[in-house]
Amino acid sequence: MENALCTNIKKLYDNGLYECVIPTASLLCTLLKNDRNVATLEMEYQAMMYLSNANYKEHNYRTACSQLEAVVLQRKTMLRFKSTYLTAIESSYPQFQDAELRYKIAVCYREMGEYNMAINTLQAVKARTPRLNMLLARLLHHHGRGVGKKEKALAYKDVLRECPMSLTSIEALLELGVEGTEVHSMVVNAAALPKNIEWLSSWIKGHAQMYGCKHREASQTFQQLNETQQLHQNEHILTKIGNCLYYDGNYLHAEQYLSLAMMQNPYNVNALTSLAVVYDRNKKKLERSTLIAPLEMRRTREFRSAHWFLHAQLTYSSGKYERALSFTERALDMDERNIEALLLRAGLYFMMQRQRDAVNVFQSIQCLAPYRFEVYKGLVACYVRLKCIKEAQATCTVAVRQFPTSARSFTMFAGTLFRLANPNAVRSAKRFVEKGLQIDEHYAPGIALLASIYQGEGDIRKAIALLKKQVEYRPDAMLFAMLGEMLSKEKDLDAALQYFTLSLRLDATYQRALDGINALPKAARMASSNRPSDKASEPNVATGGNATAATAAAAAAVACSAPNLHRACNRSNHDWLLDYDEAESLELSSPAGPAEDAESDTFSEPFWQAVDGELTN
Fold first, then answer.
1. What's the number of CA atoms in the CB half-sphere (13 Å) around residue 317?
2. pTM of the model
3. For 550-575, what is each residue's pLDDT tens digit?
4. What integer pLDDT is reported at residue 600 of this predicted model?
C-alpha cells in the first residue's frame, strides 16, 4: 500500500496538484511513522520531500519551513549512508537539491519576516547559484541591519559574474554607491555578455547619473536611448525619463513621459506611482476611471504596497489627511522601503503640524534615498517652521554639495539666506540664485526669488521685467500674482488687475491673487485722493477718476466672482514643500526681515561663506 501511495503522490506532484499532494503525503508520513516494519529511509525522505515542497508551492510558509528543515537533516543522514536513491531523485528533480532546498527555506523565513534567519540560511550554502546570490543580495540590501555597503555589493557582484545582463543587480550596485566605471568594466569584461548591446553603456551611465544626484543629465541620457530606433518608446526607459524629470522638479515634462509609459502598459505601477505625485504637483486631479481602475483589485488581500500608496495619494490630494495617513501606513507595512510612501508620510506629518515626526521620517529617507532632493527640501521646510535656522542652514549646505548641478539646491539655499537680516547674506543669496538660474534660466522658484531680491534692493522695474520675461515663456500662477503686486505698488492698477486675473485662471483658489484683487479698490481710492485738485489739472483728474473707478469696479467684480471660482475648483494648495510654496517655506515675496533665531546670524555665516567661497572658486 505504501508503494502505491508513493507512486500516486509522485503523479499528483508531477501534474502540479499540490493541494492534493498535501493530505495524501501527510497520510503516508503517518503510516510510515506508525509502521516501522515497512518504513525505509528512502520512503520517508520521498514522502517528506513531496509534502514540504507542496506546502511551499501553496504558500504555507511556516509549515513548509519546518518540514524543509527536517528534509535537510534527513538528506544529511542519507549522505552519511551513501544512498543511491538520493542521487536518483535529485537528478530527476533538480529543485530537490540541497541548494534549492535552502533557497526555499530562506524564502519561507523572508515571508515570515525573519530576515536574519533567511540571511544565515543562505550564507551557510558554500556553492551558491545566481538565484541564491540574488536573494541574499536583496535581503542584505533591504534588511541587513548593521551590514556595510561593501558586503551588500559583493552579493550583487557575484550575480553579475555569471549573469552580466542582470540589470536589476547593476542598478542596485549603482544605488549602493559603486562607481559607474567599475560596474561598466565588470559587465563588459564578463565572458557571458552577448554581442551588439551598445545601449548597455548608456543605460549604466544614466543610472549612475540618477543615483549620483544628476537628474537632469540622467534624463538626457535616457532620452538618447529612447531616440534610438531599437529602443524607441520602451516603457521602462520612458518611466526612467519621467522619474528623473520628476526628481529634478520638472513636473510638466515628467507628466508627459510617465503618461507615455502608462499608454504602453496601463498596469505599470512604477510609472503610475510617480504620475500620481506629479499630477498633484501640477494641480491636476488623478482620474480614477482611466488610471486607477485597471489596477483596482476585487479582494483587499491582493493589494500591494503601490496600490495602497495610490489610494493614499488620492486621499491626500482631497485634503483628508488622517485617512491618507492610514493608507500610507498600510503601504509601508507591506514595503518599509517604499520611498514615495515615506515622503507622503512625512508630508502628512508636516501638514498636520507634526514637524518633529516629519523630521524623523525625512532623516530616515535620507539614509535610504540620498539622491532625492525632496528629502532636503522637506527638512528645510520643517526646520524653518520650527524656527531652527541653524539646522536649516546646515541642511542647505549639504544639499548644495549633494546637488551641484541642480538649480533647486542653489535656490533653496538662497531662500534661507534671504530670510536673514544680514546684508552680506542677502548679497550671497543673490549670487546663489543667479548661479541656479545659470543652470536653468527658466526655473520659476529662482525667478521668483531673484525678483524679490531686486524688489528689496529698490529696483522694482528690473523685477517686473524679469517676471514678464518668465511668464511669456511659461505661465505661472504665483509669478502672475507677484507681477500684480508689484504693478499695484507702481500704481499701474489696470495691469495689476490683468495679471491677478491671469493668475486665477491658472489656479482659481490661489489666495495670494485673491488678496491682491481685494486690495485693488483701496489702492484705486488712494491713487484718486493723491491727485492734484487745481483747475488746471481738472481734466486729468476727471480722466484719472474714471480710470481708477473703472479699475475699482472691475476688481470688485472679480473679487465677487472669486467665491464662485473657489467653489468650482475646491482644491487647496498641497504643494507643502516642493519648490516654491511661499506660504510655508521661504516667503519669497518679502524682503529679508529680522532673524527669528537670536544666534542665527552669527552661526550661519560659516556655512554660507564656506559654500560661497566654493562657488567663487
1. 20
2. 0.81
3. 555 555 555 555 444 433 333 333 33
4. 41
**CB-based burial label for 121 (10 Å; 0-12, 13-18, 19+):** buried
SS3 helix, strand, coil % of the chain, rounded to 5? 75, 0, 25
For residue 556, what pLDDT is reported? Answer: 53
Decide: residue 414, CB within 10 A, 0-12 exposed, 13-18 middle, 19+ buried. buried
Q: Is 593 helix (H, G, I), strand (E, B) or coil?
A: coil
**Contact yes or no for 83/46 (Cβ under 8 A):** no
81 SS3 class: coil
414/499 Cα distance (integer angstroms): 26
Q: How far is CA 511 from CA 470, 516, 521, in A?
A: 21, 8, 17
Distances (CA, A) of 236 to 177, 233, 262, 266, 392: 22, 9, 10, 13, 36
**Angstrom distance (rounded) from CA 75 to CA 63:** 19
The Cα angle at residue 540 between residues 537 and 544, in degrees rounded to 5: 135
Provide the grid cell at 136.
541574499
Burial call 378-402: b when 16+ CB within 10 Å, e when fewer: bbbbbbbbeebbebbbbbbbebbeb
Q: What's the rounded Cα separation, in Å, for the pair 224 and 274?
A: 21
Backbone angles phi, psi at 533, to 5 degrees: -115, 5
Q: Which three cell numbers stand for residue 275?
A: 504620475
Q: What is the largest CA-CA distance in the chain?
A: 129
Residues in CB range of 283: below 8 A, 6 or more apart = 507, 571
CB 408 within 8 A of CB 373: yes
Per-residue pLDDT, 188: 83
Q: Pick the closest to residue 552 from 477, 608, 494 (CA basis).
A: 494
At 562, list the grid cell: 472669486
Distance from C-alpha of 526 to C-alpha of 493, rounded to nearest angstrom: 11
Cα 360 from Cα 366, distance rounded (Å): 10
Separation CA 563–CA 274 (nearest Å):
32
Distances (CA, A) of 316 to 37, 260, 306, 325, 596: 68, 25, 15, 8, 31
Which letter does DSSP use for residue 583 in this model?
T
SS3 229: coil
The C-alpha atoms of residue 174 and residue 205 are separated, in whole angstroms, by 10
Q: Is 1 exposed, middle or buried (0-12, 13-18, 19+ CB in 10 A)?
A: exposed
Q: Do 24 and 13 touch, CB atoms closer than 8 A?
A: no
Q: Residue 372 and residue 481: Cα distance in Å, rounded? A: 30
C-alpha closest to that of 354 among 332, 312, 382, 335:
382
Amino acid making up residue 226: N
Least confident range of 80-84, 144-148, 186-190, 474-478:
80-84
Instruction: With H, G, I as helix, E, B as strand and everything else as coil, classify residue 64.
Output: helix
Q: Quote the pLDDT of residue 14.
A: 87
Q: What angle do CA 229, 233, 234 make, to 5 degrees?
A: 100
Q: Compute the Cα dihedral for 153, 156, 160, 161 and give only its sign.
A: positive
Q: Is the pLDDT of residue 407 over 80?
A: yes
Contact 544, 525 (CB under 8 A): no
**Cα–Cα–Cα angle for 326, 247, 426, nearest 5°?**
105
- What whole-number distance in Å separates Cα of residue 45 and Cα of residue 33? 12
